[in-house]
Amino acid sequence: MGYGNYSSEAHDAIVRTRAAAPGEEVFQQRTCHALMNPKGVRMRESRDSEAHPESLSIAFALDVTGSMGKIPRLLAERELPRFMRVLGDCRVRDPQILFCAVGDATSDRAPLQVGQFESTAELMDQWLTWSYLEGGGGGTGQESYELALYFLALHTEMDCVAKRHKRGYLVMTGDELPYPTLSRHVVEAVIGDRLDDDLKVEEIVAELQKTYAPFFIIPDRDRARKIERRWRDLLGDHVICTQGPEDVCYAAAGAVSLCEGAVSGLDELDRVLRGAGVEPDEVSRTVQALRPLAEARRRGPTGTPHRTTGLPHALKRLFGR
Amino acid sequence: MPERVHKCPNCGAVVDASRFARVATCAYCNATVHLDEAVVSAARFRASHAAWRNSDPPLGAETVVAGGEAWIRLAPVARGEISDVFQVVRQRWPGERALLKVLRNRDDAPLFEQEWRALTRLAECDGPGLPILRNRLPQPIVCEPHPSSGWPRMLLGWSPGFEHTFEDVRGALPSGVEARAAVWMWRRVLEILSAVHRNGLVHGAVLPQHLLVERGEHGVRLVGFSCANEPDAALLAVCLPYERFYPRAMLDGARLRPEYDVAMSARAILFVLGARDDGRLPSGVPAPLAALLESAADGRGELDAWALRERVGAVGRQVFGGPTFCPLEFASM
C-alpha cells in the first residue's frame, strides 16, 4: 500500500463538507469494518514507489474508548489535513499513514482495528472514518494499548526500515494505562497468532522500538498525573502531554519533524506552525508540550552540563535534639 | 469461535480450522488450504527485552542502577544543603531524562526521607491546584538505598528550563529584577504554595536557592522539600546563611504554619528585587508593591497564599496595567 499522491486541496475538500455534520455521520461503522479486522492479517506494508521513493511510515494508534473518542473526530473534521500540511512545510518526505483504533480487549467488541498505510488524502480519510468508535473501555483504568503495540511490532513491514534502516513512527493517543501483560489467548482471539506464552508490555515495547520510534500522547494534563509515570517508564521522553485533544495533531507533527531533523528546534517549528496559519495560542501550547522532547534531544546523552548552583549551605539540624 | 484464523490464499475468505488441523477446506471457494503450523515465540520478545535493557552505554559514560534500570550519569546540576543532584538519562532507547539526588551526609537521612514523603504525598494528591502544577514541583520516581553504601538516593522527574535559582538571578542582576517581573514571579510562587497548603503541607524552607525560574517563560519551580511537613509539626532544620529569610517565630521554635511560607516567599522576592540586607528596596520598585511585599514579609496583612496572589495581581494591574510577557533575561540564561 502507499501508492498515489497526497493533495492538500483534496483533503481540505473532504473535511470541509463535514464541518456541520454530526459525528455519527462521519463515523458510520457500528461494528468493526471487515477490512480493518486484524484477525488473520499477516502484514501491513509501507512500500517505496516511484512517486514516493523514500516512504516514511507513520502509524496512528488512536484510543477510541469513551473518554478519547474526540480525537478521531477532530482528525476527520479538521486536523488530519493540518497534520499533513505541517509535515509538508517541515519538508518531511513521503509520509504514509496507517490508522489503528484501540479499545479494551476485556470488554470491547472491537479492541483493535487496523487500516493500511496510505499516501493519498482519500485513502487516509477512508481508513480513519471506517474506524468503529465503539466508545467502550472497561473502567479498569487500563486499555489494550499493548495489543496494538504487538500488532505493529510483528505485523507491519516498512521500506524505511528494510531499505534505509530507519525507524517508522508510532503516534499513540490515550488516557489510560496499558495492561501489564498481553495474554496469548487475547492475541489468538483478536489477531489469530498462536503465541507460546503471555508477554509483558515491556517485552512488546522492546520488540516494537526496533522498527518504530514510539510516541504516546496524553491529551489531558489531569489524566496525565495518573498515567504519565508508567508510560515514561516504557517510552521515556517520548511521552508528550498536551493541554487538550485539539493539540494532538500539531504535537505529533512536531515530534516527527523534530526527530526527522526536518526542523532544527522549537524556534523553527514555531515559525513553520505560524507560517501554516496555526493560531498563536495553539502554536504556543504545541511548543510547550514538545519542549521536554526537544530539550532531551538537543543536549544528547553527554550534553552540556547545567551550572552547579553553588556551595552547600550550612545547615542547622533541629531534629534528634 | 475458531481457535485459529487463516485467510484463504485463493479467495481471501476466512478459513475456520480446529486447533490441531493441518489442512482445511475453504467454505467459500472449496480450496484445500495447508495450514501454517508456525507459533509466535515469546522468546523472541524476551531476547529483545534483555538486549534493550542491557544496551551498551556510550564510551566512557558512567552508569548507575536505580529503580532496577541502568541510567547514564550526566553532569551535576546542583549542590544543595544535604545532597548533590545529577542529571541522568535512562540507558535504553527512548531514553528518559531524570534527576538523581544523592545524600552527602548520612546524618541528614531523616531530612532526605522527609523530602521523599512530602513529594510522594503531593504526587498522589488529587487535591485542588496540583494537576496543573506538575512541572512546578519535583516529581518523585523512586527512592532506594545505594546498593553498596546503603545511603538513600532518589530519582526525580526532570522538567526542562528550570536551571537558575533566585540566588543565581540575584547574582546575575545585583541591582534586582524589574519590578514588573517580580509580580509574576511572586504570583507563581504563591500559586505553588497555595496548592501545597491546600493539600495539607507546609514547605518550611521557601528560600532563594529553592526557587527556580523558567528560562524564557513565566514559570517558577519550588524544590527543597526536606523540611516540608504538616502544619504544627516541628521545623527540622534551618539554613544558617539564610536565617534572615525565616520569620523570627520559626527561629524561636514555633511550629510550621502556612503563613510562614508566605512570609518567606515575600522575603525571597525582596531578595531578587535587589533589597539590601537591611531590607531597603531599590527606588525603582513602585510603592504599592513595596508596601505589599514588606507587610507580607513581616507577617502582616493577607497571608493566605491564594488570596495574596490575587492581591499581588491587583497591585500589578494598578501599577503596570494588564499583564505583559516579560521573562527574565540575563547573560547566563
How would you characterize the overall build of this protein?
The complex is a heterodimer of chains A (about 325) and B (about 325). Chain A has about 325 residues and is an alpha/beta fold. Chain A has helices at about 10-15, 25, 70-90, 120-130, 145-155, 160, 185-190, 200-210, 220-235, 250-260, 265-275, 280-300, and strands spanning about 45, 55-65, 95-100, 110-115, 140-145, 155-160, 170-175, 175-180, 180, 200, 210-220, 240, 315. Chain A has a 6-stranded mixed β-sheet with strand order 4-3-2-7-11-12, sandwiched between helices. Chain A has a two-stranded parallel ribbon with strand order 1-6. In chain A, helix 9 links the parallel strand 11 (about 210-220) and strand 12 (about 240). In chain A, helix 3 runs parallel beside helix 10 and helix 11 runs antiparallel to helix 12 (about 280-300). The longest helix of chain A has 20 residues, at about 70-90. Residues about 300-310 of chain A have low confidence and may be disordered. In chain B, strands 5-6-7-8-10-9 form a 6-stranded antiparallel β-sheet, covered by helices on one side. In chain B, strands 11-12-13 form a 3-stranded antiparallel β-sheet. The radius of gyration of chain B is 28 Å and the shape is elongated. Chain B folds into 3 domains: about 5-55, no CATH class; about 65-155, 2-Layer Sandwich (Phosphorylase Kinase, domain 1), CATH 3.30.200.20; about 160-320, Transferase(Phosphotransferase) domain 1 (Transferase(Phosphotransferase), domain 1, Orthogonal Bundle), CATH 1.10.510. In chain B, about 30% of the residues lie in helices and about 20% in strands. In chain B, a hairpin with a 3-residue loop joins strand 6 (about 70-80) and strand 7. Chain B has about 325 residues and is α+β, with helices and mostly antiparallel strands. Chain B is built from 8 helices and 14 strands. At the A-B interface, helix 7, strand 10, helix 8, helix 9 and helix 12 of A face strand 1, helix 1, strand 6, strand 7 and helix 2 of B. Strand 13 (about 315) of chain A pairs antiparallel with strand 14 (about 235-240) of chain B, so a sheet runs across the interface.
